């Protein structure tokens, strides 16, 4: 058992003290989900290896009863194994593969594209000693372009990124959490991406009335409001301009993959449309 | 308990007797996974409502001990509830949301686009009494265009569809099944889309050496080779032409979302690249 019910978490922080890394955010949510307290070791990108006594170049890392555990997925698996009587993070061997595919989709669809919109704020909000490192590594990552040049045109990209999140909205229309009736580590992985977004967005990324908002708000409120750090920005408030794509689909298909056939009444309208008739005809 | 260990399945068939519907394929895999036998009621799109005594316009439908169950997801949930001591289909409330998101991604990325390539074969392979219905409903679905016109240019679309499946390849590089070490209903839903593909593809959709092939072959072989109906076509054999995108990524990123930080050695190469140094420098 963790001494005093507390594990040590090596954080990766902005100057505000808010967590910058989505992977550390996922671990924070996971630790809180298990009902454990956190002793936070603060710091930014600079000096991780020194801070952890040569244990790692990446965070999160936790220390529990003197044992070091690295890597956000490994930490979640460790917590389930060490504390099986507490709320489960990954309840079935089928959770991880599907969750990883959904998370990879979210990175490809939104996190990567949002990065091209928020890199300047990402650097400016980092702790002062990280500025040079963040600038150099992210410029290398983006083919040597300057951060100020990479974000140019973001007002035209943000509406498209929002529109592209429809697959996720579809799931959350039908399900309260990715975990079903209560959140699991799949929710934590996805929420962590939006917590990352809130940590770097100096202009909103999603519409005020985005259907994702209900899940995001409930997720940020979890475990006593763990996602309500004052250093985070409001991610909602993007306005749709003339010529922008709809920021989200206001008329989702009634007969999608997740609709259920409960008999002739449930499909008669679709059948009529398929036959080119007006519904009810 | 099902009489004689058998449930009645209302199939949706092509003239060859192979199943055409991905939803019926998912149900066939689910019934076999539970170790139950199937009594197949044959037929195509024409006359479903008459065949089922007015119970439904859509298939699959099953009858088990006199009870009708409609809808592929409802059938899977019913089978788990009725036969809890047999292999589980959906083991955790978190399986369905993530599986539905992955399946919706597969429809958007591949099933829909493949439909525009194979609609003529889809019609021609259907049972004779379905030809008129399939032609009319699918032409309505595609804005009134003729099936023969819709498939034009498919040789240019097929390479792009294959290239776009990388998210799924990433998961299956790291996991044997979506269910983990053994298949679950998430595998059945995804496999059903490839079984549908095999039922309609009159020219290959994927490269001979596609990394998805291992999972697809193992999936088609499940439950005594349930996916090896002689009416199905070989989906592999697409050739990459000059100017085509790579049909799959031959050099997937070593440090992706699913890689694990096991200490400094596991990240040193990536760290060097981020700093613009040669690895090992």
Overall description:
- Two copies of one chain form a homodimer.
- With 281 residues, the first copy, chain A, is α+β, with helices and mostly antiparallel strands.
- Chain A has two domains: 3-82, 3-Layer(aba) Sandwich (Glutaredoxin); 95-264, Glutathione S-transferase Yfyf (Class Pi), Chain A, domain 2, CATH 1.20.1050.
- Chain A has eleven helices and four strands; from the N terminus they run E-H-E-H-E-E-H-H-H-H-H-H-H-H-H.
- The first copy, chain A, has helices at residues 22-33, 48-51, 72-82, 95-125, 131-141, 147-150, 154-163, 166-174, 185-200, 213-225, 264-274, and strands at residues 6-10, 37-41, 61-64, 67-70.
- The first copy, chain A, has a four-stranded mixed β-sheet, covered by helices on one side.
- In chain A, strand 1, helix 1 and strand 2 (37-41) form a beta-alpha-beta unit.
- The radius of gyration of chain A is 21 Å and the shape is globular.
- Chain A starts with 5 loop residues before the first strand and ends in a 7-residue tail after the last helix.
- At the A-B interface, helix 4, helix 5, helix 8 and helix 11 of A face helix 4, helix 5, helix 8 and helix 11 of B.
- Chains A, B: Pfam families: GST_C_7, GST_N_3.
- Chains A, B: It comes from Croceibacterium atlanticum.
């Amino acid at each position: 058992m963790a001494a005093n019910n507390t594990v040590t978490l090596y954080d990766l922080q902005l100057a505000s003290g808010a967590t910058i890394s989505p992977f550390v955010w996922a671990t924070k949510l996971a630790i809180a989900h298990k009902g454990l307290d956190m002793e936070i070791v603060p710091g930014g990108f600079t000096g991780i290896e020194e801070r952890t006594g040569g244990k790692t170049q990446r965070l999160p890392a936790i220390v529990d009863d003197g044992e070091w555990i690295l890597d956000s997925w490994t930490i979640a698996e460790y917590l389930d194994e060490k504390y099986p009587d507490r709320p489960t993070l990954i309840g079935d061997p089928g959770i991880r593969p599907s969750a990883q595919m959904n998370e990879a989709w979210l990175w490809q669809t939104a996190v990567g594209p949002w990065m091209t919109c928020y890199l300047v704020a990402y650097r400016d909000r980092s702790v002062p000693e990280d500025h040079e490192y963040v600038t150099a590594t992210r410029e290398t990552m983006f083919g040597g372009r300057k951060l100020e040049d990479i974000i140019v045109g973001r007002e035209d990209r943000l509406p498209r990124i929002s529109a592209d999140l429809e697959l996720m909205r579809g799931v959350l229309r039908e399900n309260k959490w990715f975990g079903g009736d209560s959140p699991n580590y799949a929710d934590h992985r996805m929420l962590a991406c939006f917590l990352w977004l809130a940590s770097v967005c100096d202009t909103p990324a999603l519409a005020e009335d985005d259907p994702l908002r209900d899940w995001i708000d409930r997720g940020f409120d979890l475990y006593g409001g763990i996602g309500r750090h004052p250093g985070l920005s409001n991610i909602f408030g993007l306005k749709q301009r003339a010529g922008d794509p709809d920021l989200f689909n206001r008329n989702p298909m009634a007969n999608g993959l997740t609709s259920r056939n409960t008999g002739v009444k449930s499909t008669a309208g679709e059948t009529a449309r398929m036959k080119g008739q007006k519904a009810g005809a």
